[in-house]
């Protein structure tokens, strides 16, 4: 087991009076792909936002390469090498496809990813690079969202439901591209509703249920029964 | 010919109004902040210009070299120190705070300069004119218009062809996601306010050369700026120039009909356009 790149310790999160996460503990090893599953409203997106610096957390609740980053702003977290592909893609409508990618690289980290390499990964984006990002199909927009995160040359990349609302062939294409993305030593957390997909791409899996971790295990050993129990909370 | 003259003079006056409007539009576009103090900041810039010309014996246009950076720095400080704290889901706090700022600036100017009208001395530039096809055009209004066009072209270029403009647009689209891209929105907002007040500085100095001013005239300049922004269409930079020109022409043509109608004619043109095209003539196309 490598050094953990990310350690989450006793993390909680609130929206006003509503508590969305309770006492989450989680680790991601260097180079590991971790999957997170859970029903709608379980707190998966909230957890991604907490890691990325978009929620208000206690500094020690999120540690990245040994540094307490829970209290940092999202731009400071990004500078340290964590990138998020947000749920629902969230491209900038006022920016062209190319500008959406360039702005992802603005944190100024060195690494293998450049505009050219993103275009190699998703050639269709090169053809459409001058277009408004809103003119793309859902799948193409997802490619931009992934490319935008890669442009930051992150060491840890967070994917929040990259297949949501996309046609099966597109999902297949995106998942086929995934090994080429995380293969280079990048660590990843993948939030995925499709449990089979989640198990096939990850080495370990966490299940969230109503803001708590209900299951943690190695992806090749957890049983379907354990997962359904953790997912739906049926005892 | 008199009518043509009124239209041409109104067009040139519109350049000044476009400068009033550009800073207002920029701030609204980037951070959805309606800056009630904008008119008073224009007047403040005029007074800073006045002080610079008197103390350093400079020509008003040369004073821009001092007033523009000063206003830009003040804008950045104001945004980071005060206005950022008021921004959020509720639109009321920034309105109240900028209204308060407007009162503070007016009173401070009254204390410092009294209520007496002042004017900057631009020498021969004030009276110089050229004849063009039977029309006599003042060099100063022509210069003002040219400066307005250049500034608006520069803003347009900044917005669509620079990293700063990309950051403005991204933060305007989605503050959280922009923050994920390593942009600190508080800093980006500071830069937007700095740019806005730099434009305001030029507007204020040109105003102070063109007409006399006193601490109370900010409100009127704010209204002209607003009207130009809304006529042109929110979020459209070139639209502010069109809006300024339409307002300027309405005023000079109105004054031609009856000198007392100048301001009223502008307001009527604004209302008519608002009734026919509620989003302005050239709303942003996205
Ligand atoms: N901005 C918000 N304000 C208030 N409550 C929120 C907000 N965002 C999320 N919540 C609540 O927090 C809980 C967790 O939401 P979250 O979006 O993290 O779930 P999720 O697991 O990502 O769900 P989904 O599968 O639907 O994306 C839900 O009960 C949700 O209603
Ligand atoms: Mg979610």
Q: Would you kindly provide a written description of the structure presented here, covering whatever features stand out?
A:
Chain A has 235 residues and is an alpha/beta fold. Chain A has helices at 44-52, 74-79, 97-104, 115-121, 123-127, 138-150, 168-182, 195-201, 224-232; strands at 4-15, 18-29, 33-38, 62-64, 67-68, 82-85, 156-160, 187-191, 204-209, 212-218. Chain A has one domain (6-232): Rossmann fold (3-Layer(aba) Sandwich), CATH 3.40.50. In chain A, the strands form two sheets. A six-stranded mixed sheet of chain A has the order 6-7-8-3-9-10, with helices on both faces. Chain A has a four-stranded antiparallel sheet with strand order 2-1-4-5, with helices on one face. In chain A, helix 7 links the parallel strand 7 and strand 8 (187-191). In chain A, helix 3 runs parallel beside helix 6 (138-150). Chain B has 286 residues and is mainly alpha-helical. Chain B is 75% helix and 3% strand. Chain B contains eleven helices and two strands, in the order ααααββααααααα. Chain B has helices at residues 2-31, 38-56, 60-86, 92-113, 139-161, 163-173, 175-180, 185-210, 218-232, 237-257, 262-276, and strands spanning 129-132, 135-138. A two-stranded antiparallel ribbon of chain B has the order 1-2. In chain B, strand 1 (129-132) and strand 2 form a beta hairpin. In chain B, helix 5 packs antiparallel against helix 10 and helix 10 (237-257) crosses helix 11. The radius of gyration of chain B is 19 Å and the shape is globular. The mean pLDDT of chain B is 94. Chains A and B meet through helix 2 and helix 3 of A and helix 6 and helix 7 of B. The structure holds adenosine-5'-triphosphate (ATP) and magnesium ion (MG). Residues 44-45, 87, 160-161 of chain A line the site of magnesium ion (MG).
